[in-house]
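Hello,

Our lab assistant flagged a job as stuck in the queue for most of the afternoon. It eventually completed. Since we weren't sure the result was trustworthy after the delay, we are filing this so someone can double-check. Below is the sequence as submitted and the structure that was eventually returned. Let us know if re-running is recommended.
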Amino acid sequence: MDSLDFEESIQSEVKKETGLKVKVENLVAARIHPDSGFKSVQIVALYFHCSPISDRKEKPGGDLSQLKWVRPTDVFKYFTTSTCDEVTKFLVTLEKSS
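-- returned structure --
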């Protein structure tokens, strides 16, 4: 992100990477990224809940070569690192409510 205006940065990045317009609902969790623990610069990972506000005419862009809609708890199959408990709880709750 290039600024501390997270909502604007997220909307811009999601649009660039997926073609979707989204509404940023809320911050789900924040943590020090586990891969940065022993480096000189630590990365703070912010997990936001976003909802699409445009028709689902997604297309991969930016660094992405493929997009796929999955059930909320199926995202764990695609993460390359562990997730924090708050994200796990949020995704389980989201899945149960849909």
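-- support follow-up --
The delay was a queue issue, not a problem with the job. The result is valid. The mean pLDDT is 87. The radius of gyration is 14 Å.
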